[in-house]
Amino acid sequence: MPFSPARTNSEAPWDLFDSVAYHNHNYSSLRSDDRQILAAVRDHFLAALASTDPASLRGIDVGAGTNLYPSLAMLPWCREITLFERSERNVAWLRNEVVRYGDNWDEFWAVLCEREETYPEVADPRARLAGVADVRQGDLFDGLPGTGYDLGTMFFVAESLTTAHEEFETAVDVFGRALGPGAPFAVAFMENSLGYEVGELSFPACRIDSTDVVASLAGYAAPGLRVERIEVPGEPLLREGYTGMLLALGRRGGERTTD
């Protein structure tokens, strides 16, 4: 059944999302842009969590989809990682994948282990992820399962679920409010995305730039927030109509201010 392009989050056919096609297109091998992002997130977490005991934190990845590398980046420090996802197909994919993740993720893990601290101390990351992962289905606009998370990620979600800036801002706000004080976070965005196709279906995106990212995070991020821009690589584009990737690295500060 054909679908007209969605504009708001509620209009998109999330439960028909082709998880296998999306995973194969985006994560079957490690791209240079994802390598840059993963290395930056690794270094941010290593610096922010240098004195933190292994396996002591609660982490959350919001909108996990078919991407395990945010969870792998949090893995050494977490006793539990909630992989929160709306799409029924993505939830099924995640529950199957975390039992013993595929060989393609080994090169992602290898990037994390390029630094000698912490990551190489995880002897069996597959078994570790299987033991700590908690895949939960839900709509982030209805809230996340719990608050006070010690560590958090949200990759290519807030700008990739709607064309409406209000919904983009709400998605970031929901993520921020779920983190506990001082919690390190990493949030990634597609810059100037115009939407994307998965299989034969179209999904919405909100056109944003670094100014929008800073504004959406400023209300709850502690001083020191960094936003890094990742250039479009020479490899084939992941989707039409984007100009790069944006990676925000910081810590949770106080409550979001309101007018």
UniProtKB/TrEMBL annotation:
Name this protein carries in UniProt: NNMT/PNMT/TEMT family protein
Keywords (A to Z) from UniProt: Methyltransferase, S-adenosyl-L-methionine, Transferase
One Pfam match: NNMT_PNMT_TEMT
Provenance organism: Kitasatospora paracochleata
Keyword Endoplasmic reticulum: no
Entry keyword Cell cycle: no
Source organism superkingdom: Bacteria
PROSITE patterns documented for this protein: SAM_MT_NNMT_PNMT_TEMT (PS51681)
